[in-house]
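So, can you check?
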Amino acid sequence: MDVTAVDRSAVLGDTMLHRAAAVSKLVATGLILAAVVSVNDTLVALGLALSLTGAAAALRLPLRKMLPLALYPALFALVFAFAAAPGPVTGALLVLKAVTAALAVVMLMFSTPYPQVFAPLQRVTPEIVGDALLMTYRSLFILAEKYSDLLRIVRLRSGVSARQPVRAARATTRALGGLLLYSFDLSQREYDILRLRGYEGGLRVTPQPVREPGADFAAIAYGVLILGVVLAFTRFATGLAGYSWLVVVVGLIDLGCGLIIGRRSR
Protein backbone atom coordinates (compact mmCIF):
# COMPACT_ATOMS: atom_id res chain seq x y z
CA MET A 1 0.00 0.00 0.00
CA ASP A 2 1.47 3.35 -1.10
CA VAL A 3 0.47 5.64 1.76
CA THR A 4 2.11 8.64 0.14
CA ALA A 5 0.01 8.21 -3.03
CA VAL A 6 -3.17 8.13 -0.94
CA ASP A 7 -2.19 11.25 0.96
CA ARG A 8 -1.08 13.05 -2.21
CA SER A 9 -4.45 12.42 -3.83
CA ALA A 10 -6.34 13.45 -0.67
CA VAL A 11 -4.41 16.69 -0.16
CA LEU A 12 -3.71 17.86 -3.73
CA GLY A 13 -6.87 16.61 -5.45
CA ASP A 14 -9.52 19.11 -6.53
CA THR A 15 -12.51 17.03 -7.58
CA MET A 16 -16.09 17.61 -6.50
CA LEU A 17 -15.70 14.96 -3.84
CA HIS A 18 -12.60 16.70 -2.48
CA ARG A 19 -14.63 19.89 -2.05
CA ALA A 20 -17.28 18.18 0.06
CA ALA A 21 -17.03 18.40 3.84
CA ALA A 22 -15.49 15.46 5.67
CA VAL A 23 -18.66 14.96 7.72
CA SER A 24 -20.78 14.67 4.58
CA LYS A 25 -18.41 12.14 3.09
CA LEU A 26 -18.41 10.14 6.30
CA VAL A 27 -22.21 10.09 6.27
CA ALA A 28 -22.29 9.06 2.60
CA THR A 29 -19.73 6.31 3.23
CA GLY A 30 -21.77 5.08 6.21
CA LEU A 31 -24.90 4.92 4.04
CA ILE A 32 -23.06 2.94 1.36
CA LEU A 33 -21.63 0.55 3.95
CA ALA A 34 -25.13 0.07 5.37
CA ALA A 35 -26.31 -0.77 1.86
CA VAL A 36 -23.49 -3.27 1.41
CA VAL A 37 -24.34 -4.96 4.70
CA SER A 38 -28.05 -5.13 3.79
CA VAL A 39 -27.75 -6.38 0.21
CA ASN A 40 -28.62 -10.06 -0.25
CA ASP A 41 -28.80 -10.29 -4.04
CA THR A 42 -25.65 -11.01 -6.05
CA LEU A 43 -26.78 -9.02 -9.10
CA VAL A 44 -27.67 -6.01 -6.97
CA ALA A 45 -24.26 -6.20 -5.29
CA LEU A 46 -22.58 -6.33 -8.71
CA GLY A 47 -24.58 -3.31 -9.85
CA LEU A 48 -23.53 -1.36 -6.77
CA ALA A 49 -19.85 -2.16 -7.37
CA LEU A 50 -20.10 -1.06 -11.00
CA SER A 51 -21.95 2.13 -10.12
CA LEU A 52 -19.44 3.05 -7.43
CA THR A 53 -16.54 2.45 -9.82
CA GLY A 54 -18.26 4.65 -12.40
CA ALA A 55 -18.72 7.41 -9.82
CA ALA A 56 -15.00 7.28 -8.97
CA ALA A 57 -14.10 7.46 -12.67
CA ALA A 58 -16.43 10.41 -13.26
CA LEU A 59 -14.85 12.25 -10.33
CA ARG A 60 -11.39 11.70 -11.88
CA LEU A 61 -10.09 9.80 -8.87
CA PRO A 62 -6.98 7.64 -9.57
CA LEU A 63 -8.68 4.33 -10.30
CA ARG A 64 -5.42 2.58 -11.14
CA LYS A 65 -4.24 3.11 -7.59
CA MET A 66 -7.62 2.69 -5.93
CA LEU A 67 -8.79 -0.58 -7.46
CA PRO A 68 -5.84 -2.70 -6.27
CA LEU A 69 -6.48 -1.50 -2.72
CA ALA A 70 -10.19 -2.23 -3.04
CA LEU A 71 -9.46 -5.73 -4.36
CA TYR A 72 -7.28 -6.73 -1.40
CA PRO A 73 -10.28 -7.77 0.76
CA ALA A 74 -11.43 -10.02 -2.10
CA LEU A 75 -8.56 -12.40 -1.33
CA PHE A 76 -9.75 -12.91 2.25
CA ALA A 77 -13.39 -12.99 1.15
CA LEU A 78 -12.54 -15.76 -1.34
CA VAL A 79 -11.02 -17.86 1.43
CA PHE A 80 -14.05 -17.30 3.66
CA ALA A 81 -16.47 -17.97 0.79
CA PHE A 82 -14.68 -21.19 -0.12
CA ALA A 83 -14.85 -22.38 3.48
CA ALA A 84 -18.31 -21.21 4.54
CA ALA A 85 -20.47 -20.31 1.53
CA PRO A 86 -23.10 -22.94 0.68
CA GLY A 87 -22.81 -22.28 -3.07
CA PRO A 88 -21.01 -20.24 -5.74
CA VAL A 89 -23.72 -17.58 -5.87
CA THR A 90 -23.46 -16.89 -2.14
CA GLY A 91 -19.67 -16.93 -2.41
CA ALA A 92 -19.79 -14.35 -5.21
CA LEU A 93 -22.08 -12.21 -3.06
CA LEU A 94 -19.59 -12.26 -0.17
CA VAL A 95 -16.71 -11.26 -2.45
CA LEU A 96 -18.71 -8.45 -4.08
CA LYS A 97 -19.77 -7.08 -0.71
CA ALA A 98 -16.17 -7.02 0.48
CA VAL A 99 -14.93 -5.27 -2.65
CA THR A 100 -17.75 -2.70 -2.69
CA ALA A 101 -17.29 -1.82 0.96
CA ALA A 102 -13.54 -1.48 0.48
CA LEU A 103 -14.03 0.72 -2.60
CA ALA A 104 -16.31 3.07 -0.65
CA VAL A 105 -13.71 3.46 2.09
CA VAL A 106 -10.88 3.87 -0.43
CA MET A 107 -12.82 6.66 -2.17
CA LEU A 108 -13.14 8.40 1.18
CA MET A 109 -9.41 8.11 1.93
CA PHE A 110 -8.36 9.24 -1.57
CA SER A 111 -10.54 12.35 -1.35
CA THR A 112 -10.11 13.41 2.28
CA PRO A 113 -6.90 14.10 4.25
CA TYR A 114 -6.62 11.66 7.12
CA PRO A 115 -6.64 14.32 9.87
CA GLN A 116 -9.89 15.68 8.44
CA VAL A 117 -11.41 12.19 8.35
CA PHE A 118 -10.61 11.76 12.00
CA ALA A 119 -11.47 15.32 13.12
CA PRO A 120 -15.25 14.67 13.46
CA LEU A 121 -14.52 11.41 15.31
CA GLN A 122 -12.21 13.09 17.82
CA ARG A 123 -15.21 14.58 19.57
CA VAL A 124 -16.53 11.16 20.56
CA THR A 125 -13.30 9.20 21.13
CA PRO A 126 -10.96 9.37 24.15
CA GLU A 127 -8.12 11.88 23.82
CA ILE A 128 -5.41 9.25 24.03
CA VAL A 129 -6.98 7.29 21.15
CA GLY A 130 -7.24 10.35 18.92
CA ASP A 131 -3.70 11.47 19.65
CA ALA A 132 -2.31 7.98 19.04
CA LEU A 133 -4.01 7.74 15.65
CA LEU A 134 -2.76 11.15 14.58
CA MET A 135 0.81 10.37 15.61
CA THR A 136 0.59 6.99 13.87
CA TYR A 137 -0.47 8.74 10.67
CA ARG A 138 2.57 11.02 10.88
CA SER A 139 4.90 8.11 11.60
CA LEU A 140 3.73 6.13 8.57
CA PHE A 141 5.34 8.59 6.19
CA ILE A 142 8.58 8.68 8.16
CA LEU A 143 8.74 4.89 8.20
CA ALA A 144 7.86 4.62 4.51
CA GLU A 145 10.74 6.92 3.57
CA LYS A 146 13.10 5.13 5.96
CA TYR A 147 12.15 1.72 4.52
CA SER A 148 12.83 2.94 0.99
CA ASP A 149 16.27 4.21 2.03
CA LEU A 150 17.13 1.01 3.92
CA LEU A 151 16.06 -1.20 1.02
CA ARG A 152 18.13 0.85 -1.43
CA ILE A 153 21.20 0.69 0.81
CA VAL A 154 20.93 -3.08 1.32
CA ARG A 155 20.53 -3.72 -2.40
CA LEU A 156 23.47 -1.50 -3.33
CA ARG A 157 25.79 -3.07 -0.78
CA SER A 158 24.81 -6.65 -1.56
CA GLY A 159 24.55 -6.23 -5.33
CA VAL A 160 21.05 -7.70 -5.49
CA SER A 161 19.18 -7.53 -8.80
CA ALA A 162 15.67 -8.44 -9.91
CA ARG A 163 17.02 -11.68 -11.42
CA GLN A 164 17.95 -12.95 -7.97
CA PRO A 165 14.64 -13.42 -6.13
CA VAL A 166 16.14 -15.30 -3.18
CA ARG A 167 18.76 -12.67 -2.48
CA ALA A 168 16.19 -9.93 -3.07
CA ALA A 169 13.92 -11.54 -0.48
CA ARG A 170 16.79 -11.66 2.00
CA ALA A 171 17.58 -7.99 1.34
CA THR A 172 13.95 -7.07 1.91
CA THR A 173 13.88 -9.04 5.17
CA ARG A 174 16.98 -7.22 6.40
CA ALA A 175 15.42 -3.87 5.54
CA LEU A 176 12.25 -4.80 7.41
CA GLY A 177 14.26 -5.85 10.44
CA GLY A 178 16.09 -2.55 10.46
CA LEU A 179 12.81 -0.71 10.03
CA LEU A 180 11.32 -2.53 13.03
CA LEU A 181 14.19 -1.43 15.26
CA TYR A 182 13.96 2.11 13.91
CA SER A 183 10.21 2.21 14.62
CA PHE A 184 10.81 1.40 18.30
CA ASP A 185 13.37 4.18 18.52
CA LEU A 186 11.08 6.63 16.69
CA SER A 187 8.20 5.85 19.04
CA GLN A 188 10.34 6.46 22.13
CA ARG A 189 11.78 9.70 20.76
CA GLU A 190 8.33 11.07 19.88
CA TYR A 191 7.04 10.20 23.33
CA ASP A 192 10.01 11.91 24.99
CA ILE A 193 9.59 15.03 22.85
CA LEU A 194 5.90 15.31 23.70
CA ARG A 195 6.60 14.91 27.41
CA LEU A 196 9.35 17.58 27.32
CA ARG A 197 6.99 19.99 25.59
CA GLY A 198 4.36 19.54 28.28
CA TYR A 199 1.98 17.23 26.44
CA GLU A 200 -1.15 16.53 28.46
CA GLY A 201 -3.43 15.20 25.74
CA GLY A 202 -5.64 16.89 23.20
CA LEU A 203 -4.01 17.19 19.74
CA ARG A 204 -7.12 18.66 18.19
CA VAL A 205 -7.64 19.00 14.44
CA THR A 206 -9.69 21.93 13.16
CA PRO A 207 -12.25 20.76 10.55
CA GLN A 208 -11.96 22.43 7.17
CA PRO A 209 -14.68 24.95 6.28
CA VAL A 210 -17.36 23.97 3.78
CA ARG A 211 -16.09 24.72 0.27
CA GLU A 212 -19.04 23.67 -1.87
CA PRO A 213 -22.44 22.92 -0.26
CA GLY A 214 -23.65 21.33 -3.48
CA ALA A 215 -20.92 18.70 -3.20
CA ASP A 216 -22.10 17.83 0.31
CA PHE A 217 -25.67 17.38 -0.90
CA ALA A 218 -24.57 15.27 -3.89
CA ALA A 219 -22.45 12.95 -1.73
CA ILE A 220 -25.23 12.32 0.80
CA ALA A 221 -27.88 12.02 -1.93
CA TYR A 222 -25.80 9.35 -3.68
CA GLY A 223 -25.47 7.40 -0.44
CA VAL A 224 -29.22 7.66 0.21
CA LEU A 225 -29.95 6.50 -3.35
CA ILE A 226 -27.69 3.45 -3.02
CA LEU A 227 -29.21 2.51 0.33
CA GLY A 228 -32.73 3.08 -1.00
CA VAL A 229 -32.20 0.73 -3.94
CA VAL A 230 -30.86 -2.00 -1.68
CA LEU A 231 -33.67 -1.60 0.86
CA ALA A 232 -36.23 -1.74 -1.94
CA PHE A 233 -34.86 -5.06 -3.19
CA THR A 234 -34.55 -6.34 0.37
CA ARG A 235 -38.05 -5.40 1.51
CA PHE A 236 -39.83 -6.30 -1.72
CA ALA A 237 -37.62 -9.26 -2.57
CA THR A 238 -40.52 -11.35 -3.87
CA GLY A 239 -41.87 -8.73 -6.25
CA LEU A 240 -38.51 -7.45 -7.49
CA ALA A 241 -36.64 -10.76 -7.61
CA GLY A 242 -36.83 -10.91 -11.40
CA TYR A 243 -35.65 -7.34 -11.92
CA SER A 244 -32.30 -7.33 -10.13
CA TRP A 245 -30.59 -7.49 -13.53
CA LEU A 246 -31.73 -3.90 -14.06
CA VAL A 247 -29.35 -2.80 -11.30
CA VAL A 248 -26.49 -4.40 -13.22
CA VAL A 249 -27.54 -2.60 -16.40
CA VAL A 250 -27.70 0.72 -14.58
CA GLY A 251 -24.32 -0.01 -13.01
CA LEU A 252 -22.81 -0.69 -16.44
CA ILE A 253 -24.29 2.55 -17.74
CA ASP A 254 -22.87 4.43 -14.76
CA LEU A 255 -19.47 2.85 -15.36
CA GLY A 256 -19.47 3.70 -19.07
CA CYS A 257 -20.64 7.26 -18.50
CA GLY A 258 -18.14 7.70 -15.68
CA LEU A 259 -15.22 6.59 -17.84
CA ILE A 260 -16.29 8.93 -20.65
CA ILE A 261 -16.80 11.90 -18.31
CA GLY A 262 -13.49 11.23 -16.58
CA ARG A 263 -11.56 11.19 -19.84
CA ARG A 264 -13.23 14.34 -21.18
CA SER A 265 -12.58 16.21 -17.93
CA ARG A 266 -8.81 15.72 -18.12
User: Anything to note?
Assistant: The chain has two domains: 3-113+209-264, 119-196. The chain has eleven helices and no strands. The first helix runs from residue 3 to 12. The chain has a mean pLDDT of 81.
